[in-house]
Amino acid sequence: SQQGEEDPQALSIQEGENATMNCSYKTSINNLQWYRQNSGRGLVHLILIRSNEREKHSGRLRVTLDTSKKSSSLLITASRAADTASYFCATDARGNQFYFGTGTSLTVIP
Amino acid sequence: GAGVSQTPSNKVTEKGKYVELRCDPISGHTALYWYRQSLGQGPEFLIYFQGTGAADDSGLPNDRFFAVRPEGSVSTLKIQRTERGDSAVYLCASSLGGGAYQETQYFGPGTRLLVL
Fold first, then answer.
1. For residue B44, which residues of chain A lie inside 8 Å, CB to CB?
2. For B80-101, what is each residue's pLDDT tens digit?
3. What is the number of other CB atoms lying within 10 angstroms of the CB of residue A24?
4. Beta-carbon neighbour count of residue B50 at 10 Å?
5. How confident is the model over B11-56, as pLDDT tens digits?
6. Poorest-confidence range of A93-102, B72-81, B101-110?
């Protein structure tokens, strides 16, 4: 079973707009990671946030983590058509195992 | 440098056949993971290796699935008596060392398995 759930399942925005997607999880974690996947193949790591961190930035990406609500959000600012992909959160609920959510499918319209 | 590679890219087999899927991790990475991803779903954990040993194989769905990593580098995922429900993309990932919760996993492009 999968620990994380992303919301929304699908998101369509115009180029230049910001995209926000959320992840909720069930059990306590050590860290939470966001990945991106194009065309159902290999995943690309975007950002890792540890349980004692609340916010992290990387370029146009901003991730927040609220451990009290067991949730995280990924914000992509000034979106580009090339950002079109599926985005997954992954948590390490059982140490060596990573649990991935079901993903948010983002479409950025040029 | 070279990333994680997986072969074959695609595999079509018949129900009941045996298949092997190969993963070449990033050189020097001691941790290796196998995942399975069905259409419209996130990757599902199968097994984790630390060096040559399977540190956690609790994600393997049944005893038809087996994986090895005899020299602590290349890994092979083996599926016996394949079933149509085994059709999925099989992803491999590696990370630098142990303590997975501290580290980024680097994924290969996956092997798309289709069981007819």
1. 2, 100
2. 999 999 999 999 999 887 555 5
3. 17
4. 19
5. 999 999 999 999 999 999 999 999 999 988 899 999 999 889 888 8
6. A93-102
What does pLDDT average to over chain B? Answer: 92
Residues of chain A with pLDDT under 50: 1
Q: Would you say B111 and B11 are in contact if contact means Cβ atoms under 8 Å apart?
A: yes
Residues 5-44 of B with CB under 8 A from A: 33, 35, 37, 39-44
Check CB contact of B45 with chain A, cutoff 8 Å. yes
With contacts defined as CB-CB under 8 Å, which chain B residues touch A36?
A: none
CA–CA gap between residue B14 and residue A36 (Å, rounded): 32
CB contact under 8 A, B40 and A102: yes
Q: How many CB atoms lie within 10 A of CB B88?
A: 20
Nearest to B101 among A31, A41, A102 (CB): A31
Which of A2, A3, A83 is closest to A36 using CA atoms?
A: A83
pLDDT for A1: 46
Which B residues in the span 62-101 are in contact with A, Cβ-Cβ below 8 Å?
A: 89, 91, 93, 100-101
Residue pair B24/B5 in contact by the 8 Å Cβ criterion: yes
